[in-house]
Amino acid sequence: MALFDLPDFDDHEQVVFCSDNASGLKAIIAVHSTKLGAAVGGCRMWDYANDEEALVDVLRLSKGMTYKNAMAGLKMGGGKSVILGDAKTLKSEALFKAFGKALNGLNGSYLSAEDVNITTSDIAIANTVTPFVTGTEGKSGNPAPFTALGTFLGIKASVKHKLNRDDLIGLKIAVQGLGSVGYQLCEHLYKAGAELVITDINQMALDLAANEFNARVVGLDEIYDQDVDVYAPCALGATINDDTLTRIKAGIIAGCANNQLAEPRHDKALVKRGILYAPDYVINAGGIINVSFEDNYNSEKSTTKVGEIYHTLLNIYAKADAQSRSTGIIADEMAREIIKNGGK
Fold first, then answer.
1. Domain map (residue ranges) of the chain
2. Quick one: which of 277, 269, 275 has its CA closest to 241?
3. How does residue 288 score in pLDDT terms, banded at 50, 70 and 90?
């Protein structure tokens, strides 16, 4: 595996491989940039097909965190960590203590938090052996409600720009993934009057959402073919790819998943198809915004800051239209400029 030759290696400052035989820990920590401050980004636990798949994921996710934190106006760099394995069978107190000790080895250049399959309880265990975690109970806590709120506001901004509507009443929205964030997003959308089409691997979550939000359930692969106004990817990444691009009927793609585009070229492909794309690291920044208030937590200030996602997206859309360029490229350029200027 040639790390430096991987397309997703972007001059990352550190890539650390961690293992602990006693607990079964196998993890990768990637620090993309500390130019705006210590790198902050969640840890996800996933049963990757192989080590290279995990490495590519953490490289892409950590770069996304650099851009996410910059666009959210946070004095944080970007990093991410992944634990390899099945969260249903491998989780243990020993594993998260081993992970915490691995974090100590970076001496504060990276702070971890919750992400896919990682809970505040897991982070609390790591916190018993390391101070280099955030999103802890009693402080900022679970970031998921704020990620869901930011995504909801991002959908509203997208609808405002594309359809010139301030409401979601009667709009059809396909939500792919009913994890903690996706489910709470559905609640926001339902209360706002949207009609929901949903899919997930968790049948219990589907049954609950179908009943609570009057949502229509479709198969995992059928979600792309739905005649809807908005497609909201809220599961894992790369669901916008060569196969799905020709199938998506929605005029707007706006969801909370990371790395929604399988390849950067798909950003331009969306423009050609007349689809408005909300750059993932902008629309899903609500959780990290909430985490940024960890030391002096104030939920009202956090909620107000999350509200800025709406206006940031409108700004990106206006620039993209004015320059006849894709929203993803515009957002990337804005993020790099912010980083170059030290966050100003």
1. 10-62+76-127, 144-340
2. 269
3. very high
SS3 breakdown of the chain: % helix, strand, coil, rounded to 5? 45, 15, 40
Alpha-carbon span 170 to 50, nearest angstrom: 43
pLDDT at residue 1 in the model: 60
Q: Catalytic site residues?
A: 80
What the block records as the tokens of 46 is 């996933």
What is Dmax (Cα atoms) for the chain?
Answer: 57
Measured between alpha carbons, how far is 122 from 118 in angstroms, rounded to an integer? 6
Q: Which residues are CB-neighbours of 312 under 8 A, at least 6 positions away?
A: 71, 72, 282
Note the pLDDT tens digit of each residue in 198-256: 999 999 999 999 999 999 999 999 999 999 999 999 998 889 999 999 999 999 999 99
Find the mean pLDDT for residues 300-308: 96
Query: pLDDT digit string (tens) for 68-122?
Result: 999 999 999 999 999 999 999 999 999 999 999 999 999 999 999 998 899 999 9
Topology given in CATH for the domain delimited by 10-62+76-127: Rossmann fold (3.40.50)
Residue with tokens 């059928």: 222
> Do the beta carbons of residue 247 and residue 218 sit within 8 Å?
no
Secondary structure letter of residue 109 according to DSSP: S
10-62+76-127 and 144-340: same fold? yes
Cα separation values, 268 from 106, 212, 240, Å: 38, 37, 12
DSSP, collapsed to helix, strand or coil, labels residue 240 as strand
Question: Is-contact 272 278, C-beta < 8 A?
Answer: no
Strand order in the sheet with 14-20: 14-20, 25-33, 77-84, 39-46, 110-114
- CA dist., res. 47 & res. 160, Å (int): 39
Q: Is the pLDDT of residue 343 over 90?
A: no
Architecture of domain 144-340: 3-Layer(aba) Sandwich (3.40)
* Helices within the chain (DSSP H only): 51-71, 87-90, 93-104, 120-127, 144-163, 180-191, 203-213, 242-245, 265-272, 280-283, 286-291, 299-306, 308-323, 327-340
